[in-house]
Amino acid sequence: MPSVIYAPAYRRYSFGDEHPFSPVRTDMVLDLLGALGHRVDTVEPEPATREDLLDVHQNAYVCRVEKLSAGALVPDGQEYGLGTQDTPSFPGMDEAARWLVGGTLHGARLISEGRETRVLQLGGGLHHARRSVASGFCIYNDLAIAINFLTRNGLKVAYLDIDVHHCDGVQEILNEDPRVLTVSLHESGKYLFPGTGEIRELGAGAGRGLKLNLPLEPFTEGASYLEVLEQVIPAALRHFRPDVLVVQAGADAHFDDPLSDLMLTTRDYEAIFRRILAWADDFTASRVLFTLGGGYSFRAAPRVWAILYLVLHDLHVARDLPESWRSKWSHTSENELPQTFHDPNPSHADIPNRYEIAHRNRQVAERLLDLARQYWFQK
Amino acid sequence: MLIRDIMRSPAIAISAETTLQDAYRTMRERGIRHLPVVEGEKLVGVVTDRDLRLATSALVPSPFSPDSRVSAVMSSAPLTADASDPVEDAARTMRELKIGCLPVLDDGRLIGIVTGLDLLDALMRLTGVHKPSGRLEVRLPDHPGELARLTSFVSHRDLNIHSILTYPEGPDSVRTVLRIGSIETGLLAEDLRRAGFDVLWPPEKPCPR
Questions:
Q1: Distance from CA of A248 to the nearest CA of B (A)
Q2: Is the N end or the C end of chain A the one with fewer CB atoms within 10 Å?
């Protein structure tokens, strides 16, 4: 049985009712699974300690988060990305963020102690947080902290990031680490926040060739996404031979997401999750830790993450969404919540230059592998 | 952005008495292609790797020998720049006259050099991504106050603009590309559209909303 990590305290990581990064999304996931008759047993973690944070964050930064968290004024907060429009400060933010870090860290612990193979952390995935800068809704980088925990315990980590945004924080922190492979698929930074994640950013020092970025064209659809995923991931895993996968499963590459421009459907997500689990079986003796991430459509993200739960537990994805659930959460969206679990087919209007987009993505994947292989086979 | 912000200083220079051989070696060792030529502190010319290669080529009827002086093959009285010139002036001069560098003078004294590569660096700084940001592209009517209307819209939402580029598009419009320090440019674009702006990026997705 996979372990699902969650604490009600995760709800405190909230930037206000109008902010896209809403804890309501996770409530909707849990409520949907319950309405479908699944009993979700969750493991409650401890919040991360200050010490845990200092593994990747600078003391000066943590101090400022703590001060803002306690309601004090921090005149230079903006220099640290704090109190911005994207990442506003709020009372209790330090502890709320430490809860999310604690959850991801707990998942890493379960795996490194051999107590669990498949773990789903129902939160976290705060991949934009830098060593001393908050960015893109992310305060503390739970992923980098958990990955460091795994490598310290002798495990080689392959990190896969399917959030629509580049994992700039994770990459910055682990850029020179030879024990960590990172692979990020995202909408190209030429267009989308944070602007980085080009194929030439291959890592530095001993980590050179192990930080892979696959920037995708706006309006990329599932078929192309799955094709390049298949081109890159198995090749990278065969080369790197990881002991564990860590997956940031952002749901914002869905076509209904308001912040970005990729066009995945729930069926594409189901296929992606199944492939990832198969790779975990093939390469890491099934050891895989999933976190959530971005995903700002109330119509889409809860369904995507419920599908992740169901696939992880080898459960069937029902055809219809329960009426009780739809009416309970109808207030979250201007448009009606969908009636079916999966998106209808076709789910959106045709993309006119679909073949050109797929062609460009294929070429970017090839160029990425060409560049990376120069380092893989260099002795 | 001024020449002083992008120039290489001090410039590596040689004297007019230097042989072609030695000038060539200096270029090879330093990885450069342009050498100002000075007499004392006074600039008297510029010699490029192309000058050296053409002067000594077996293809010319009477090639110079490797121990000839650079004064024989250099461009005399070269065009120069002032440290306070804007970079676009240097770009225009170099493009129009098809030359690869401008020595920078102060009171007739050589203080630096700007090459085509430095201008490319400047272009990268002007257009590049140096902070986490999202891209916004808007077509504006070519009237006074339009850009101010756009930037004040952004500032009212308390968002930081990291870079802004604007260029003429047609007779009546300009294209403005901004990098905004926010992950929420999609939502900003929607609001701008509602306020009547012609937003070209991010686009509206072809799906039911």
A1: 17
A2: C
- Residue A95 lies in domain: 3-318+354-376
The CA distances from residue A159 to A143, A166, A212, in Å, are: 9, 13, 10
**Which residues on A lie below 8 Å from B135 (Cβ)?**
190-192, 195
Number of folded domains in chain A? Answer: 1
Read off the pTM: 0.89
Concatenating the DSSP letter of every residue in A180-210 gives EEEEEEEE-TTTSTT----TT----GGGTT-
Q: Do B158 and A136 touch (CB under 8 A)?
A: no
Higher pLDDT, B107 or B207: B107
What does the pLDDT average to over A41-66? Answer: 98
**For A363-376, what is the mean pLDDT?**
97
Q: Do A263 and B205 touch (CB under 8 A)?
A: yes
Buried/exposed A280-308: b ≥16 CB within 10 Å, e otherwise: beebbebbbbbbbbbbbbbbbbbbbbbbb
- Cα–Cα distance, A286 to A267 (Å, whole number): 23
CATH class of B3-124: alpha beta
Show residues of chain A in contact with B133, CB under 8 Å.
193-195
Q: Map out the domains of chain B as residue ranges.
A: 3-124, 131-201
Picking from B151, B161, B129, B134, the residue whose alpha carbon sits closest to that of residue B197 is B151
Tell me the CATH class for B131-201: alpha beta
CB < 8 Å to A193, chain B: 132-134, 182-183, 185
Report the CATH number that the domain containing residue A157 is assigned in CATH: 3.40.800.20
- Positions of A marked catalytic: 128
Nearest CA in chain A to B200: A191
Report residue A162 as tokens.
């399917």
